[in-house]
Here is the input.
Amino acid sequence: MAGSGCGSGSPATGCEARAVHVPPFRGLRRALATRALPYIPWRKPRMEPGPVHLTARRLYILPTRGGLVFGLLLLGLLVGAINYGVSLAYLFTFWFAGLGVVGILHTQRNLAGLVLRPLPVEPVFAGEVAEFVLEVDLAEGRARHRLGIHHPGGRGPLADVPADARGRLRLDLPQPARGRHGPGRFAVYSEYPLGLFRCWSVMELDWRGLVYPAPACEARPFPAARGEDEGAVPLRGEGAEFAGLRAYLPGDPPRRIAWKALARSGDRLVTKQFSRPVGRQLWLDWRETGVADPEARLSRLTRWVLDAHTAGLAFGLRLPGLEIPVQAGEGHLRRCLEALALQGQGP
Amino acid sequence: MNAALVARSWLVIPLLLVLVPHGPSLPAWLLLAWLACAGLSLLGAHQGRPWPGKALKWLITLVGLAGVALDYGTLIGPAGGVALLVFLSGAKLLEIEGQRDRLGLLFVGVFLLVAHFLTSQSLATAAYMALAALALAAALIASQTPGADLARKPFQPLAPAASLLGQALLFALPLFLLFPRIQGPLWGLPQQQMARSGLSDRMAPGDISQLIQSDELAFRAEFAEGEGGEPDSRALYWRGPVLWDYDGRVWQTTLPVPGHPRGEPRGAPRHYTLTLEPHHQRWLFLLGLPDKLPDLPSHLGPDLQWTALHAVDQRLRYETGAYLDYRLDPDLAPEWRSRALTLPAEGNPRARALALGWRQAATSEEDIVGKALELFRQSPFAYTLTPPPAGAEPVDDFLFSSKRGFCEHYAGAFVFLMRSAGVPARVVTGYQGGEYSALGRYWIVRGRDAHAWAEAWLPGRGWVRVDPTAAVAPDRVERGIGAALPAAELPGPMAVMNGAWLRPLLLGWDLVNNQWNQWVLGYNLERQRKLLSRLNPLLATLEGSLTILALACAGVLGLLGLGLFARRPPRRDPAARAYARFCGRLARAGLGRGAAEGPADFARRAGGARPDLAAEIGRITGLYLAARYGKADVGELAALKTAVARFRPGRRSR
Here is the structure.
């Protein structure tokens, strides 16, 4: 997570100017995709907290497009059987029709009785893809096949659940904005065994993951320490002590690159790191980001928080209405990032 | 194995299975093209190569369409349509991109499977097609199975497909029995050119002897019970075309014979059910004088020739009764009399002279008939399938030089002699006798039972059947053709039929086929009504059958649903069972375990409440926790079981 700062090749950070491809009829497509989660209007899916038990009451089933074609085919065969008076054509047409009907039962049976448990979502940075995972627990021991999540934003891969075991359904959703985001309304579906019918259940879970602000692209020096020591702290000089080397990250200022080390190793860029002398505290402050736009400020602060953490510095974070005291460590980093993600959005 | 190849095989092989029965009726180029496409498709899947370019695909499609159109002259209708679909399914195999393509191809397979029943509906075809249906259903499942799983277990979809089809049969049977049958075509059937079989409306020398070599089934007949047992095979003259006119070589009926029969029955009628195989002609067969004709669009002429208005293109079942003893046309109208005496102006002078001699010497018509039969009986006439070819004077040649012939020679010569002698006569063709299947209690009449005989009109007696063949080869009528012919002349299948050990087998097989024909293939509106009215007369209406159909389907659905969704009680762990027993004993002793109380907590509480039992409770709980959650160890489980069995808390005595 900490390594997912900008420039690490992830296209999600927004550092590269991305050509946004807008498919034609996007609105229509979205409407169709949303319509693919139909439910009875007077039984709207409610927000549910915990595990969902897929009872027959909440399962819908309708033919797929293939199923409709199959129905038309059978109708045609029946008309042919009547017209030519062919008894075996009746028999086999009815047999295939029976296959379709039995397929309905089996498709429904493939979903019925499942218990779906939403797993905690790993936090991501805005612009990255969040992974929502449902754990599938079998109330009964039968194996289940080809289960998937259908979401207006895309479908997850299909997964099997072996008998007496647990399976996982995954849904990857790109997260454009910071905050606490969930998948919203989605459906768990299956077309097994014949692909002629689709059975699904629409649900909306209280299931959200943190999305941190996207870190700013450009590395900038930390703001000058304030409070007990006034004045800017130079990056290199008597104020800072050399603390070691770390691998170069794009955006590191050239003057901090250890050129001698490069000459020694030959191909690898290394960045010199400096630690502040004890007693000088690093405060990352909302007011000192040098940009005006609130989201840009948050981006900048995120970048600083990550850089400071990477550099092993202790730092404090000041946001409007919130101050996190100077500290270091993984837990502190998470706390700061969470504060940045939720800044101005309530708890 | 290569996952893509396995997935592709799950399309190619089921389609191939469906196509094989269509093979004989398809042109060779089409089959080769299909196989080439299938091979290329499998190769492409094996090598993971891209499909041929768009232009090439269009080219293949257009060439195929043109080929089918040129070959069949059409792209629709049963024959052309099937050929087109076969070709398109092959071409589609070259560009399978997704689930939709796969489903589409399998649907084409389903269509071709059912379409084949237009060609053949035999039991063997049905059994084969059931296998093909299994392959198609398994292919549907395979198309839903991830490639990696398929590659690991290529035959995995077969088992669920078989189970699904088995359950589907539960639906298919009530639907088949109860779905309202609609009689007759919904739209005009295309005129199909079908090879006619069986008797024809003309009899030239050699016609019947060809028919006789075929083992093809003509019809089956079942006599009603309780009318005096099975009739004598000698009395079974199944009437077909009656031939009035002779042109010197060919007997036929050139002009229609209008009117209705005028017959006087004697005795009681025999009732029978006849199931006629489609012969694509209009003849219907009957015995003797019918008492009541079934409700068929047909016409019964005064000569008892019964013709349907349309060719018999489907198996036809009718019930009727026959007076085997009757008097037909006691007074012969002059125009019929003259027609029954007409002969070509010249030809066959020796036969005419012989007949004239009889006429002058005879006192009655019966006498003349007797003379003719005596001729056949006494001269060295031989009954053979291979007579010498007829010359310019066929009757003279046959009667005076070769003396070798078949029933058409005898019947033709006899009628010629009668007409020359002034006795009205005509040729009747049909079938004689048949094979009786004691197993199924019905008669099997085949091509080899084809026969020709004569009818002569005698004053006061009307038309009387005379079978000159019986005079030459009595075995023909008494024991069938196999006994009458020299052994060397027996056609292949008949020689086998005479093998005694095979007979019961063949008759059994015929019985199975007959039941299949009667109950599966011949299941029509009439049979459905009959079956339903036997259950309850109310059901024999459209509403009734629809109601019971809905009920039956709902019942099957409910039963299946119960079977599929029934919650099987979860099998509990043996350790959990033992622990539950232990808890039950404690509960009876007044120490119930709370719903949310863990075993360890419960043991602590129970031990506190019953210090006398604390040690034992602690031990059992420890064993339980070890057996249930620890490493699997049989010893702990066994110790737990014995400990629980010995555990008798009893109420604490105060």
